[in-house]
């Protein structure tokens, strides 16, 4: 499985960015849960959002609920993260991750990321105050 993130950049507080994760090497992306994680300098990696592509179920960290929206296009093998009302504390490297979840339509773990088996290289998001 190969994951490539794009869409990061510099934005002012209150602005928006849309991250995209392009996946390849899958049999079918719908058998996977895809997540976005982030890691800021000096901080632990944290789960931001994930989507179970079989059931369509999603999960969000409390810190981004109401501001971020995750979506998947199984035909294009992409998972996007729309980020609105960005804050300086959203500044981090954002990573896309994947985990086989066939048979469990509600598998949407967010935590440290140990459940995920495949990772992208990350994209930098910087929110200026």
Nearest-integer average pLDDT: 95
* Tally of alpha and pi helices: 0
As a percent range, the share of helical residues equals under 10%
Q: Tell me about the biggest sheet?
A: 7 strands, mixed
Computed Rg: 14 Å
The separation of the N and C termini measures 37 Å
Structural class: mainly beta
Q: What are the segments in which pLDDT stays under 50 over at least 5 consecutive residues?
A: none
Shape: globular
Strand content: over 45%
**Number of DSSP strands?**
11
Along the chain, the helix and strand elements come as EEEEEEEEEEE
Protein model, in words:
This protein is mainly beta and 129 residues long. It has no helices and 11 strands. The strands form 2 sheets. Strands 2, 4, 5, 6, 9, 10 and 11 form a 7-stranded mixed beta sheet that branches. A 4-stranded antiparallel beta sheet has the order 1-3-8-7, with no helix packed on it. Strand 4 and strand 5 (46-52) form a beta hairpin. The chain is globular and about 45 Å long. The chain starts with a strand and ends with a strand.
Question: Which key terms come to mind for this protein?
Answer:
129 residues; mainly beta; seven-stranded mixed β-sheet; four-stranded antiparallel β-sheet; 0% helix; 50% strand
In a nutshell, what does this entry contain?
This protein is mainly beta and 129 residues long.
